[in-house]
Design a protein that fits this description.
single chain; 8 helices; alpha/beta; seven-stranded parallel beta sheet
Length: 275
């Protein structure tokens, strides 16, 4: 098999949520494969700084652009910036998302507040807006141009929790108490992302645009030891993911190595959903 199948030289990839834990890994993987990279997140300073790192480390072209993916005008401006710099976008990675357990502790989204019985409508709507509407808007605006050009790959980052229900027992501490519960919003929005992926794949297939989703398993990221142990015990490979474990999958979905693949949900989870 030719390694050229995985080459992204001459291609431009745009990644949302690009300065987060996995977002940075996605950017690095695509840069390593030769792509020009558009780094997109809410902070202009952070996106520009990381774009500079990519250029320095990988000798590739990179552009940092601040954007709010829930705002159509902001996404249009992002798209114009990418076109102005690189002429177009060949790969779109819809990675930006909010996850209550990770991000909302300071806002009180823990304990009884985050249980289904009490889950705040505000947090539900925020997850829908970012995780689902943001994916829709970026795909609508950037994917439409791909379809006009007759080529492109859209990769929507979903989750194993879009495939199976969360195991709430993972969050139980050794003393039997439980501070966190996986909220209903994250699994609901990620399942919707998988469904939207299939819709767009069928809709744009004849236009030359491939649309697939990637469902990662849990990533080790300074969680409490008890949670890491619980997760590892629930996973056939016996561990949580390393942040770099998804780099190969991203390059595969972005490149010609997956040229006959669309409408699929690629699960990379250490076997989590196998039992």
């Amino acid at each position: 098999m030719s390694s050229n199948l995985f080459s992204l030289h001459g291609k431009t990839a745009l990644i949302t949520g690009a300065v987060g834990l996995l977002g940075k890994q996605h950017c690095q993987a695509l840069a390593e494969a030769g792509a020009n990279v558009v780094v997109t997140d809410l902070s202009a300073k952070a996106t520009q700084a990381f774009a500079a790192e990519l250029k320095e480390e990988h000798r590739t072209s990179a552009l940092g652009v601040e954007a709010d993916i829930t705002d159509p005008d902001s996404v249009q401006a992002l798209h114009r910036a990418a076109i102005g710099r690189f002429g177009g976008v060949d790969v779109l990675v819809n990675n930006a998302a909010v996850d209550d357990v990770v991000r909302d502790v300071s806002k009180g989204a823990s304990g009884d507040v985050i249980r289904l019985e009490n889950y705040p409508l505000e947090l539900w709507r925020r997850s829908l807006d970012v995780n689902l509407t943001g994916t829709f808007l970026c795909s609508q605006i950037i994917g439409s141009e791909m379809a006009r050009r007759g080529r492109g790959s859209i990769i929507n980052i979903a989750s194993t929790y879009g495939v199976v229900a969360p195991d709430q027992s993972l969050y139980k501490k050794p003393d039997g108490s439980q501070t966190f519960f996986k909220s209903p919003a994250y699994p609901a929005t990620k399942a919707a992302v998988i469904s939207l992926t299939r819709f767009m794949a069928a809709y744009w297939g004849r236009a030359g645009v491939r649309v697939n989703s990637l469902s990662p398993g849990g990533v080790e990221n300074s969680q409490e030891n008890y949670f890491v142990r619980n997760y590892a015990a629930r996973t056939p490979l016996g561990r949580m993911a390393d942040p770099g474990d998804y780099k190969g999958a991203i390059v595969f979905l972005a490149s010609d190595a997956s040229r006959y693949m669309t409408g699929a949900n690629l699960v990379v989870d250490g076997g989590w959903t196998a039992w």
